[in-house]
Amino acid sequence: MQQGTEIVGRYILAFVESTGKVSPVFERKTRKMFAENDLDVDSISENSWHDALNYAKAMDQVKDEVGSKTITEAGIEQAKAAPWPDHIETVADGLQFIVEADRDAHRGGYEGGYVVEETGDHSARIGIKQGAPYPLENFKGVFLGAGRQLSDGSVDLSETSPGPDEQAAFELTW
């Protein structure tokens, strides 16, 4: 991600709010870490734009100081915060929408962090691109959250072999 890239506030707010669901103490710590990275959560609105590199640094700090599980849970909440269009009814459609929503949530040079390929009627491969700036645990949460939003059954995410231009890859089944 290049300098000057921005992310829309709704995903920052969803991330921070999700830590509060784990514990009020975690939310206070998260707010403090975000402030240390020039992101004052109290001044962020759903439609405001903020430095995405600072957001990535804050997420890494939360991961290091609070834990990976919190980052995954935040991703699940971020998927819930996505502006789901009415025409999205299947998990496969939802996964493609998440790819587009990721691009739309950024401006200033971010091409998106992942690619999705359907591998069956109830499965898809998700490749996390090299250079994607956010923690892998957050990506996992986003896709688990999307699957849960749109599936009537259980959703599973397992690691698979990444391609040459990917830092990680997963198989989502529903």
Class by alpha and beta content: alpha+beta
Enumerate the spans where pLDDT stays under 50 for 5 or more consecutive residues: none
CATH architecture of the largest domain: Alpha-Beta Complex
CATH topology descriptor of the largest domain = H-NOX domain
Total number of strands: 7
CATH class membership of the largest domain: Alpha Beta
Number of helical runs?
Answer: 6
CATH superfamily of the largest domain: H-NOX domain
List the helices and strands and how they pair.
Blueprint lengths: L5 E3 H14 L1 H13 L12 E3 H14 L2 H14 L9 H14 L1 E2 L6 E7 L2 E7 L6 H15 L5 E5 L5 E8 L1
Antiparallel strand pairs: 1-2, 1-3, 4-5, 5-7, 6-7
Helix pairs in contact: 1-2, 1-4, 2-3, 3-4, 4-6, 5-6
Description:
- The strands form 2 sheets. The chain has a 4-stranded antiparallel sheet. It has a 3-stranded antiparallel sheet with strand order 2-1-3.
- It is of the alpha+beta class and 174 residues long.
- Strand 6 and strand 7 form a beta hairpin.
- The chain is globular and about 45 Å long.
- Helix 1 runs antiparallel to helix 2, helix 1 packs across helix 4 and helix 4 packs across helix 6.
- The relative contact order is 0.16.
- The mean pLDDT is 92.
- Helix content is 48%, strand content 20%.
- The termini are far apart.
- It folds into 2 domains: 75 residues, no CATH class; 87 residues, Alpha-Beta Complex (H-NOX domain), CATH 3.90.1520.
- The longest helix has 15 residues.
- The chain has 6 helices and 7 strands; from the N terminus they run βααβαααβββαββ.
